[in-house]
Amino acid sequence: MSSSSAPLDRRGLAITAGAFVIWGLVPLFWALLQHVPPMQILGHRMLWGGVLVIGWLLLTGGTAWLRNVWRRPRLALMLAASGLCISVNWGLFIWAVTNGHVVETSLGYFINPLMNVVIGVLLLGERLSRPQWLAVGVAAAGVAWLTVGYGALPWIALTLACSFALYGLLRKLAEVEAVQGLGVESLYLFLPALALVLWGEATGSGHFVDGWGWRTDLLLVLGGALTALPLIGFAYGVRRIPLAVVGLLQYIAPTLSLACGVFVFGEPFGIDRAIGFGAIWTALAIFAADGLHRSRRRAAEEVASMPAEAAPLCDEAPRR
């Protein structure tokens, strides 16, 4: 039976959508820590997120997941590189949010799907359809317009998009289960994170336990959970719903971030930004419509290629 005819896993859909909602609203959380230096936030985020993920893996599966990676040096190296990419992404995102650039972070995650397409063409030899090339061209025009409006490249958005796209590429090529891969990345980041925290305490930029107060300390610990839980939820959900649905759901996060930047933090969003964002949204609409068309055509071709006696079975999806 074609997978396209199976009923959508509602639990997987809800958990995946929830992960994107958390990512979209997380600027509200990091803004509560504006009085904490961004590098200290990053250190605590990596430290406590690692404690949660590694602890969960050890409790549920022992150390088999770790041995599975260490036996394959190439995989271990790829996860070290992906850990570096995600730490750059997290660090820049925290800095941008705590310094009043929430709108530009949302732009980065609107650009990200199209950056994935470009990487697929340049590094994986994938081919684009005409609508996809049109989408990339329109998005590039939008970035060029924003560059003229800013008077400089929107480097925050482009760095966030590139770092997350490279992270996605490495995790696509790394043959490891999603949460286990996150656990190995967390191991790589644990010592640098601990060093950042201890360096802050030694130099006076960190005041964990004895200076910021228990509310700030609790927020820093919760920041680790807020990092790990959406990633775990995403890893759970993405295995249970079609990638086409995931592709549409991913726009929840930058849309909510943009709303936070404009309506909560009062960041400017004039006509120049509206034109640039409008071009990128148009590109995303073209890209999404083309993807939907292709998935429907592929499903129709699968049904058409089935033996005549099997075709009627596709009309009856199993009930859950």
Verbal overview:
It is a multi-pass membrane protein. The chain crosses the membrane at residues 12-33, 45-66, 75-95, 107-125, 132-148, 154-170, 182-199, 219-238, 245-265, 271-289. Pfam families: EamA (PF00892). The protein is mainly α and 320 residues long. The protein has a domain at 8-101 and 174-267 and 285-304. It has 12 helices and no strands. The protein has helices spanning 10-30, 38-61, 64-70, 73-98, 102-124, 130-150, 155-173, 178-203, 214-238, 243-249, 252-264, 271-304. Helix 2 (38-61) packs across helix 8 (178-203), helix 5 crosses helix 7 and helix 5 (102-124) packs antiparallel against helix 11 (252-264). The longest helix has 34 residues, at 271-304. It is globular.
Unreliable segments of 5+ consecutive residues: 1-6, 312-320
Radius of gyration: 21 Å
Helix-strand topology string: HHHHHHHHHHHH
Number of strands: 0
How many H/I helices? 12
Oligomer: single chain
**How far apart, in Å, are the first and last alpha carbons?**
16 Å
What profile does the largest beta sheet have?
A: none
Q: Which secondary-structure class do the elements indicate? A: mainly alpha
Helix content: over 70%
Bulk shape: globular
Mean pLDDT: 84
